[in-house]
């Protein structure tokens, strides 16, 4: 009678068999490489360190207690609550939209308070005058 099934007995992993963390991958030349470019180049990815001025507008009362700026990354796409420092308006917006795409308080944008309150000069708020620069780096793009 033939035995159908795995030919190796299933034993728990021993000490010399390691499982690698999810933050690393192995490539063809057997080097361990970090998955995320931000970790590889040591760029700050947490909201409190990457954008402390935006993290100061975090609404502590309306956001869940397990979410706070020290652990939330700048690429977080679920909407969270913010409290505007100028008009004290509470609104929902993703961290990625605030940090990467430059979103702000919807009431201040409509009323035009943001440009005056930031102390910006006349031409600084014009997006056409600012130089274009890449926000996200593509691994295949050569600079």
From TrEMBL:
<dbReference type="InterPro" id="IPR025487">
    <property type="entry name" value="DUF4379"/>
</dbReference>
<dbReference type="Pfam" id="PF14311">
    <property type="entry name" value="DUF4379"/>
</dbReference>
<keyword id="KW-0862">Zinc</keyword>
<protein>
    <recommendedName>
        <fullName>Treble clef zinc finger domain-containing protein</fullName>
    </recommendedName>
</protein>
<keyword id="KW-0479">Metal-binding</keyword>
<dbReference type="GO" id="GO:0005739">
    <property type="term" value="C:mitochondrion"/>
</dbReference>
<feature type="binding site">
    <location>
        <position position="105"/>
    </location>
    <ligand>
        <name>Zn(2+)</name>
    </ligand>
</feature>
<feature type="binding site">
    <location>
        <position position="84"/>
    </location>
    <ligand>
        <name>Zn(2+)</name>
    </ligand>
</feature>
<feature type="domain" description="Treble clef zinc finger">
    <location>
        <begin position="54"/>
        <end position="109"/>
    </location>
</feature>
<feature type="binding site">
    <location>
        <position position="108"/>
    </location>
    <ligand>
        <name>Zn(2+)</name>
    </ligand>
</feature>
<dbReference type="GO" id="GO:0020023">
    <property type="term" value="C:kinetoplast"/>
</dbReference>
<feature type="binding site">
    <location>
        <position position="87"/>
    </location>
    <ligand>
        <name>Zn(2+)</name>
    </ligand>
</feature>
